[in-house]
Amino acid sequence: MLTRNDIQSEKWSISKHTQLSPTDAFGTIEFQGGGHSNKYVRVSFDTKPDLLLHLMTKEWQLELPKLLISVHGGLQNFELQPKLKQVFGKGLIKAAMTTGAWIFTGGVNTEKKKIGLIGLGKHAMFYFISADAQEVK
């Protein structure tokens, strides 16, 4: 019989403590204060890229990008000064719009970063890919 101490001392692992199942987490996101909407999809870390490409090019009818931009953040809370955050956001948007880029993000799991990344989407065409966290060893 398992005791409370046995359960608490057991190390969590993605393979043992989670169950994979299909996700229907995709659709259109409506941004507040501007009537701007865009497509999004949430996928697992091991989703096959050809399935994503099919969704984006066939279902959403997007043209193939000329550039892919991947935005990743750390797990620690990383604060930018408001002015620097604005300059970074505008520069990223300009880079995407002038190059015909798709922008991917891992969907960092801190509330401030989620809001910051989604906030960029109000001004440009952003397609968010949020990957599930992989097992930390």
TrEMBL record:
TRPM SLOG domain: residues covered: 39-110
Highest taxon of the lineage: Eukaryota
GO function term, MF aspect, one: monoatomic cation channel activity
GO CC annotation terms, alphabetical: plasma membrane
Entries under InterPro entries matching the protein: TRPM, TRPM_SLOG
Membrane-spanning intervals of the chain: none
Pfam family, one: LSDAT_euk
One record GO biological process: metal ion transport
Protein name according to UniProt: TRPM SLOG domain-containing protein
Organism listed in the record: Pavo cristatus (Indian peafowl)
Lineage: Eukaryota, Metazoa, Chordata, Craniata, Vertebrata
